[in-house]
Every structure is written in C-alpha cells, then in structure tokens.
C-alpha cells in the first residue's frame, strides 16, 4: 500500500510538471507566432522598408530562428522525457492495476472468509443456543424424573417394608399353625409303622421321605409295628437279582418282595432302628433273631451291614465271633463284594 501511495504521488507530481511545461511551451509558441505575424505584415507593407530593414529583419529572423530551434529542441527533449515518464507511468499503472487486482482478490477472499466465519459463528451461536435450550430441557426433565423416582422409590420402600413386616408376621403365624397342625395330624399321618394297629400296606412319611413311601407294616403280638424290608414265603419271586434290582427293590408288598437297599439306607441312616428276623420251619416251628441296633451304609460304601445287640432263639448267624456278615458289603452276582477270594457267594448260593 505504501508503494502504491508513492506511485500515485509521483504520478501527480509528474502530471503537474507536464502541465506547467505545456503552459510555458504554449506561451513561447504564441510569442514566436506573434513575431512571425508582425514580420510578415512589415514585409508586405513596404518593399522599401524591406530593403531598408533587410539586414535588420534577417538578423532578427535569424535570431528568432535560433531562439525557435532552441525552444523546439527543448520541447523535443521534454516530449522524450514525457514519453519516458508516460511509458514508466503506464508500466507503473499496469503494475498498480495488477497489484490492485491482486489486492482486491485478497480483500475479496478475506471478505468471503470473514463472511463464512461470521456465518459459521452465527450458526455456532444458534446451535449453542439450541443445545443450551435442550440441555436445560433435559436437566429439567431429569430433575422431574429423579424427583418422581425418589418419591416412587420411597413409596415402594415403605410398601416393601410393610409387606416384609406383614410376611414376617404371616410366616410366624403359619409356623405356629404348622406346629399346631403337625401335633394334631401327627397321629393321622404315620411317620413309621409304630402308629399303625393292624398289619398291612401303608404309606408312611418319615423325615427321609417327606413325599411318602409305601411299605408293609407288620404288627406283632405285643402290638408293636415293624417295617418289613423282606418277605419270602412261597418262592414265587426270584431273588437272584442284579445290583440295580436290589438297590431299587422288587416284588409285591402283598407277597414276596425286597424293599430296596436305598430305602433301607434312608430309613436307618438317621433314626435308630431294630432288626427282627422271623423264621418258620416246614414243620411249623418258629424262631426269631432280634438286634437292638441296625443300619446299612450308602451305595458309595456298598451298603455295608452294621448290627449289634443280639437276642432271640434262632441263633446269631450275623454277629458270630468270626464276623462273617457284620461290617461286610452287600453282594450280587454282578457286583461281587464278598471276601471269598476263590469264588462268589451270591453266584454259588443264589438269592
């Protein structure tokens, strides 16, 4: 911009100088023309005067011609200088126009950038205002929702506490009612054969079988009830069975049967039991063996037999001094657990 200012000032100064030069040249030319006009008048006015003053006029004309040549030479020099200045001025004007064009382009680009930035700033301000409005709306909505949630949570908590208190109270009442009902119905729902008064098939509900298990109860002459785990009387059922059969039980409760090792284990594992064995010979003679403590182990321990406290008149074949049966594992022909290394008792003495 400073360079442009200098160029413009130089151009103004040069123009002023040229105007002054033109004015001076015009004045000189006018004077010369006046002299020439006066000279021509005098020449045409009197020939005598022409002769008389010939030398004088020639001298003046020569002097005027000399003066005019100097002026013309000076004018030509000035014109050459003017042309040079004009050429330089033209080039400077061209440079000025190019610079102005570039300057205008830069200004236009800057202006467009400014307009774009201003537009973007306006859009950003508008977006910010909208976002701020949305945030305020969301904050208000969140605060309202949080307030409602707190109120709902508080109400639900109170309702839950009241419900828990009511359930606790009802549970205590139900527990009391259950104990009362249990005492009332204890005699109606037998847990064992002790409460029955007549031999037959019954469903008992011991602790090991809360869903109930069907058994045959035998009531002896002293009115004591026994759970029958095995009965053999006529050979109608084959007792030469697999391990799985003896585990689950087989036969018919009204005839010959085996209650099942799993049932016997569950019935004897927690409650002290007695074992009574009643036998009758073909001639009608009856014998019995009674053991005051009886239980068997679980299947993982191969249903080991545990006995003690023998009384009776049949003879002790289970607790005899050699301990051949007490503490021994249960055996079948497909699961040989006896201590006979040379054979299989269940295979030899089937059933």
TrEMBL record:
Segments forming domain Fibrinogen C-terminal:
184-351
Q: Which residues form a coiled coil?
A: 4-42
A single GO cellular-component term from the record reads: extracellular region
Question: What PROSITE patterns does the database record attribute to this sequence?
Answer: FIBRINOGEN_C_2
Which CDD domains has this protein been placed in? FReD (cd00087)
Q: Where in the cell is it found?
A: Secreted
Q: Name one Pfam family in it.
A: Fibrinogen_C
UniProt xrefs under SUPFAM superfamilies = Fibrinogen C-terminal domain-like (SSF56496)
Q: Which InterPro entries match?
A: FIB_ANG-like, Fibrinogen-like_C, Fibrinogen_a/b/g_C_1, Fibrinogen_a/b/g_C_dom
* Keyword entries, A-Z: Coiled coil, Disulfide bond, Glycoprotein, Secreted, Signal
Q: Does the keyword Kinase apply?
A: no
Protein name (Swiss-Prot/TrEMBL): Fibrinogen C-terminal domain-containing protein
